[in-house]
Amino acid sequence: QVQLVESGGGSVQSGGSLRLSCTASGFTTDYRPIGWFRQAPGKEREAISCISSTHSGYQIYYHDSVKGRFTISRDSNKNTVYLQMDSLKPEDTAVYYCATAPDSPLHCRTEYGAKVYDYDNWGQGTQVTVSS
Asked: CA dist 73 to 43, 44, 97, 131, Å?
């Protein structure tokens, strides 16, 4: 059974850092793309980063709003994908989700990014709150 569990959320002040973890079970993260998404109150869920499977060439995508501040990485030994979030801003406040999708060479390429509708297994989400 595919399962994803996020952790690492919390409350920080503007300019602070958090590291989110997405630990997978029931599959190997090397073989499927992992995406990070977020949803703020009253807004649609948006993709902010993803990392492709190793078979698809280890592509990494970042939304423009987090480029240069967030870093996605994978620890294959722990079957975990991380999202290091630095220089946090109040507008980063949201529930953060990780998700996985069936593998495809399109995932996480700059021109494709990450599409919510491609992802079929989701974690429960973790709250991130950034105060000014």
From this structure: 26, 25, 15, 26
Could you please report the per-residue DSSP string of 46-60? Answer: EEEEEE--GGGT--E
Distance CA 77, CA 69 (A): 25
Q: Which residue has the tokens 């592509």?
A: 59
What CA–CA distance (Å, rounded) separates 74 from 2? 17
Q: 112-131: per-residue pLDDT in tens?
A: 999 999 999 999 999 999 99
Q: Is 36 left (phi over 0), alpha (psi -120 to 50) or beta?
A: beta
**Which tokens in the block code for residue 1?**
């059974």
